[in-house]
């Protein structure tokens, strides 16, 4: 496909949005009326699962089409390893202008993005963010401060970017005093949509745009604007009291049920606010007349436990409150009829789907299955890095983990039987058709023993043994 | 004039191959790693020569390639009826520890083997699948490059292909490719030196970083 015929691709990740808290997926309170409106013109995927429980491995799966263990991720790796293709680099080869906007400090530049905006900035110019990226590697060039200064000045002079140092100082001050992406999420969300609209207007009719957006509204600390109070109305002081807690505190401090229920409602309020902004953005696309030539994806990197299974957050386990994510795809006109899909889908299936829509000649990993092709047989997810336990042990070094705190992984088959394997060898089996909440472990039911064996075999064939991964 | 379409690029490559076959008739071989670039080069030659590969095909066996590459090599060699010459440095494999000293390892297992094969078979030219966009060091390369140790020409018919062209060619002609590409790999090297890296480097950087830094020196020694 020639670049002038390529659709815009807009990939929106609502960080930490759990499908089960979305009204479009059946939640009792209306949290996502906007998403429902978007889904009327697109495809709503009912059974979509993340590949991991937390940000980094999930995003790297999305950008590579691979499962976390296939990427061979080590601690502190936040980029797709050089060995593998990334989605933005493939799209860039096809002629896309590739832009990332992230409100999450853990989601940064990936190979292939021409410009990547980290939203703890007051500056929106692409040039400024290219400068930031280009000078990022100077610190790796030498240990000596004078040497780094020399490289920095050389860059400024050679590229004639004389305003950059001043902007950089202003940005540092802004980061220190003006913004906190975890507590002042709504400002970053507003700026992200504003910037997205600007980019769409700028590139309309010029170049196909691949726009990746990560929004942090539903990530702790949930902080919607105060005038969004239809689900819960809390004063600033009341919110401040809630913000003293972090996920790990839930397991080691006495937090009253009343406090936790406020926190849970605040999550839903954040989701509602985000949904509202998303709908506004959708209306903008409509008004610009670009919807028919745009592939719009709204999804999440993982969910959030809000009391289910005695959990809060997304630091432990792979139960559905953490694993099931919303997925709505508004395809370009003529690609797929609107409707609902019950196929087994995964976040990283978007890798193959987007490449298929763009008619890319590149091969894509078998682990990623285009949503426009045959269904996948199995979905897998992995959670080996014990980030939650490490956070707890910072406060209580000799803390003994509870069973649900162990590393784990899971497999789900087409009939929605789900097998979870824990690091201590325990297996849990759930029939998600009858028990999506995963309350009844069926692993001990004799008639289901062959199912357990088949699922386990499929998992080992795909991911190797548990021991090989930890 | 810049080559715009894939078909223009294919024609240019086949013109280079044709010239090479004429200039070095009977004294030319093609180096084939099993990767996408050299497989494309091999297919361009096959297409030019009416479905036959009329010259020897050299494969350097370091003994530590991925098993999928070996499987792919043997399958294609059989299907395409290649006159495949597999060369490896048995002495070096006894003498060195694989990947302990990256430069030495590459030199002994690759560069030295190529040089020996050129001398042994009396080749005056070796065709490779290098591309301009693959690495900054290659950006100024020419289609025919004279080398001294041993004296021969390096023929580089797909220099003007970019990565998208390679895959477009492979797809449009149904050229087979190694299954590792369907596991997300973008560049195939030896297994011990294929490791994770940092962002912001060129395509070949998926292979070992240390090795890339001494690339220039190795190329002077005959490695491609």
Short descriptors:
heterodimer; A: 470 residues; alpha/beta; eight-stranded mixed beta sheet; four-stranded antiparallel beta sheet; 17 helices; 14 strands; 16% strand; B: 224 residues; Rossmann fold; six-stranded mixed beta sheet; 6 strands; globular; Phosphoadenosine phosphosulfate reductase family protein (chain B); Rossmann-like_a/b/a_fold (chain B)
Shape of chain A: globular
Q: Give the CA-based shape of chain B.
A: globular
Structural class of chain B: alpha/beta
Largest interface: A-B, 31 and 26 residues
- Given this structure, which CATH class of chain B is correct? Alpha Beta
Mean pLDDT of chain A: 93
Number of strands of chain A: 14
What is the percent of helical residues of chain B? 40-55%
CATH level 3 topology of chain B? Rossmann fold
Largest sheet of chain A: 8 strands, mixed
How big is the Rg of chain B? Answer: 16 Å
Strand order of the largest sheet of chain A: 4-3-5-1-6-9-2-10
Could you name the ranges of chain A where pLDDT drops below 50 across 5 or more consecutive residues? none
- Secondary-structure element order of chain B, N to C: HEHEHEHHEEEHHH
Which percent band covers the strand fraction of chain A?
A: 15-25%
How big a fraction of the residues of chain B is strand? 5-15%
> In CATH terms, what is the architecture of chain B?
3-Layer(aba) Sandwich
> Could you report the average pLDDT of chain B, rounded to the nearest whole number?
86
Q: Could you say how many structural domains of chain B there are in total?
A: 1
Domain Phosphoadenosine phosphosulphate reductase (chain B): 28-195
Protein name (chain B): Phosphoadenosine phosphosulfate reductase family protein
GO molecular function (chain B): catalytic activity
């Amino acid at each position: 496909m020639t670049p002038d015929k390529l659709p815009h691709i807009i990939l929106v990740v609502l960080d930490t949005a759990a499908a089960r808290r979305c009204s479009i997926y059946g939640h009792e309170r209306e949290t996502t009326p906007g998403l429902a409106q978007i889904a009327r013109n697109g495809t709503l995927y009912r059974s979509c699962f993340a590949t991991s429980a937390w940000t980094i491995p999930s995003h790297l799966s999305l950008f590579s089409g691979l499962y976390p263990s296939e990427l061979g991720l080590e601690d502190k790796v936040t980029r797709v390893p050089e060995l593998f293709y990334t989605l933005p680099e493939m799209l860039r080869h096809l002629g896309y202008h590739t832009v990332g906007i992230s409100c999450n400090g853990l989601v940064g530049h990936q190979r292939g993005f021409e410009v990547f905006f980290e939203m703890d900035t007051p500056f929106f110019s692409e040039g400024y963010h290219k400068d930031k990226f280009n000078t990022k590697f100077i610190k790796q060039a030498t240990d000596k401060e004078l040497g780094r200064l020399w490289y920095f000045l050389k860059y400024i002079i050679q590229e004639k970017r004389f305003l950059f140092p001043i902007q950089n100082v202003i940005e540092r001050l802004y980061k220190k005093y003006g913004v906190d992406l975890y507590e002042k999420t709504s400002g970053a969300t507003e700026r992200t949509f504003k910037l997205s609209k600007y980019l769409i207007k700028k590139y309309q009719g010029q170049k196909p745009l691949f726009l990746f957006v990560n929004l942090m509204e539903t990530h702790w600390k949930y902080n919607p604007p105060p005038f969004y109070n239809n689900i819960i109305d809390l004063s600033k002081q009341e919110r401040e009291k809630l913000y003293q807690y972090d996920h790990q505190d839930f397991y080691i401090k006495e937090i009253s049920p009343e406090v936790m229920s406020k926190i849970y409602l605040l999550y839903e309020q954040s989701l509602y606010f985000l949904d509202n902004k998303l709908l506004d953005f959708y209306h903008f696309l409509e008004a610009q007349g670009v919807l028919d030539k745009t592939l719009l994806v709204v999804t999440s990197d993982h969910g959030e436990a809000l009391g289910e299974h005695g959990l809060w957050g997304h630091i432990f386990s792979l139960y559905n409150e953490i694993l099931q994510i919303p997925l709505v795809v508004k395809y370009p006109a003529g690609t797929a009829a609107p409707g609902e899909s019950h196929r087994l889908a995964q976040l990283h299936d978007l890798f193959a789907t987007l490449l298929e829509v763009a008619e890319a000649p590149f091969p894509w990993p078998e682990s990623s299955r285009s949503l426009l092709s045959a269904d996948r047989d199995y979905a897998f997810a992995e959670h080996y890095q014990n980030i939650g336990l490490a956070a707890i042990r910072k406060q209580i070094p000799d803390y003994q983990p509870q069973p649900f705190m162990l590393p784990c992984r899971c497999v789900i088959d087409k009939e929605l039987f789900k097998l979870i394997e824990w690091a201590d060898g325990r297996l849990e089996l759930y029939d998600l058709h009858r028990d999506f909440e995963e309350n009844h472990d069926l692993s001990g039911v004799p008639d289901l023993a062959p199912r357990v064996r088949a699922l386990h075999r499929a998992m080992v064939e795909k991911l190797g043994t548990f021991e090989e991964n930890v | 004039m810049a080559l715009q379409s894939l078909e223009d690029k294919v024609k240019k490559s086949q013109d280079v191959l044709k010239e090479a076959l004429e200039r070095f008739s009977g004294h030319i071989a093609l180096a084939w790693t099993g990767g996408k670039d050299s497989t494309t080069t091999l297919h361009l030659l096959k297409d030019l020569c009416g479905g036959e590969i009329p010259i020897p095909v050299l494969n350097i066996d370091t003994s530590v390639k991925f098993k999928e590459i070996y499987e792919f090599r043997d399958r294609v060699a059989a299907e395409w009826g290649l006159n495949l010459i597999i060369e490896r440095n048995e002495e070096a494999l006894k003498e060195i520890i694989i990947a302990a000293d990256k430069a030495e390892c590459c030199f002994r297992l690759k560069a030295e083997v190529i040089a020996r094969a050129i001398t042994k078979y009396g080749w005056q030219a070796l065709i490779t699948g290098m591309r301009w966009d693959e690495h900054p060091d290659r950006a100024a390369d020419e289609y025919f490059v004279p080398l001294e140790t041993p004296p021969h020409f390096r023929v580089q018919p797909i220099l003007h292909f970019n990565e998208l062209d390679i895959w477009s060619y492979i797809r449009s002609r149904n050229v087979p490719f190694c299954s590792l590409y369907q596991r997300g790999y973008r560049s195939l090297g030896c297994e011990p030196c294929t490791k994770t890296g940092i962002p912001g480097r060129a395509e070949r950087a998926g292979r070992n970083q240390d090795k890339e830094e001494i690339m220039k020196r190795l190329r002077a020694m005959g490695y491609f």
